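Study this pair:
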Amino acid sequence: MNELNEYIEQEIGLEFHIDEHKTHLEKKLPLYLTANYQLNTAWLMGAEVVLARLKYQEDQPTIGQMHKHMESIREIINLPVILVFEYIEAFKRKRLVQQRINFIVPFKQLFIPELMMAFTEVKQVKTNEDSCFTPMAQLLTVYWLLSNNEDKQIEEVPFNEIANLFETNAMAITRAADNLANLNICTIHTGRPKSLTFNQSKQDTWNSIKERHLGIHPVLKTVFTDERPPHDKWINTNTNALTAFTDINPGFQHFLALDKATYQAYKKTNQWPQENRSEGEFATEIWKYDPALLNGKFRWLGNNTDPISLYLCFANDEDERIEEALEQIEKKFIWLEE
């Protein structure tokens, strides 16, 4: 659903909002429908609709059966029903269009004849405009730069295996690989299955990232609280983590890192403490990608954010102590050739 929201709002530019609460829908529908579809209400350009996503990718209903299911939901709920697919073959999309069934495949196609909307392959228009990493592309690159022969490899590995390693889906890896290929960082090997290889050595890749300013600042925003936020496994970041990899002395501020989705979940359930604008005992950095993902891959990180992401956090800092620390990171983690 996060991908769906990004696709409709950012890629297509339509007003869109998903209602996370779907209990009232399930109570109205027969079991065979609620057992097969995850249902949400949403607002699309001011129109209330029902989103229906298959819970199981195996043993999918036929297009004809899905058509009947959508008509049944439409009759009971009395709202337009839109099928949402993570992935569906092109020939099936063609049949959905032929039968005029509302459906969306994020970053591929939106076809809602009931609301007179149709967009196809919108993502491809922007393909050659990439000027920097996407969050997932940066995460893949950081992992590759830090990994060694004993770690799980992501080169010449099917995209679905990479997706499992990074706890995401194959479509997210496909988009990240496209971004890296557009930036000439990697080459995608087509076929069944798809895989990728990086074009240069780790040292040359890192030099290219710096010279072309491809890396993005990992932090979306920083929020301050006087109370320690509720989370089981906190990741140290900023100067707290920098002390783990360099000679810099620790500061007095407690810096913690958290991914955007977890932060928003705490906020929605009213578990997050009162935020302050500019100060507080705890400073929580909300990251564009999950800072904890790499900690499960590299035990030597301990409870710290990875050193390359830290480097990108401080890349524009003019403090001499920070500059020296970043040089130490490069010597220790980047210049190691295979």
